[in-house]
Design brief:
182 residues; alpha/beta; Double Stranded RNA Binding Domain; Arc Repressor Mutant, subunit A; four-stranded mixed beta sheet; two-stranded parallel ribbon; 6 helices; 8 strands
Amino acid sequence: MATLNFAIFESSMGYIVLVARDGKVISLDIREEGFYEAKKAVSSCYPDAVESSVVFKTLRTLLDRYLRGIPVDFNVEVDLSSRGTFDQRVLSELRNIPHGEVRSYGWLAAKLGDRGAARAVGQALKRNPIPIIIPCHRVIRGDGDLGGYSMGIRIKERLLHLEGVRILNARGRSVILRDKDR
């Protein structure tokens, strides 16, 4: 039987909730409500999970650094086995987008060999169970607009800002500029 562990810690973004199965991360969530509400949410989704900060010690350090704006390589094991084949392919390719850079949904679809699958890519990103580690916030619309984000556009903007990506609003749409473009 699989071992499920979870940890919750406070961050500048809210409470970060991590869940792992047999030592591999299966879920990352950011919750704005308090610790006990976050713990209740974990217990309802993963009733067999046991709290353990030890399992997540390295990941917590990486997340702390990342949230301070330090580039981090999230070279941690993840388990996407509960996702379909297409989602797994999308999420695996997504991990190759460098820190501080953005790509479009169409670019990611073309990278997977199907230029017409931009919407399907967007849906796969919406189902990403491990944001930040699998950086779906680095994917935007082809016209430069931010597009959506499962944890809310405000968090997407903050994550991009942490990576040095500036977002300007020009005539009702976002324009992406990286610090190195200035």
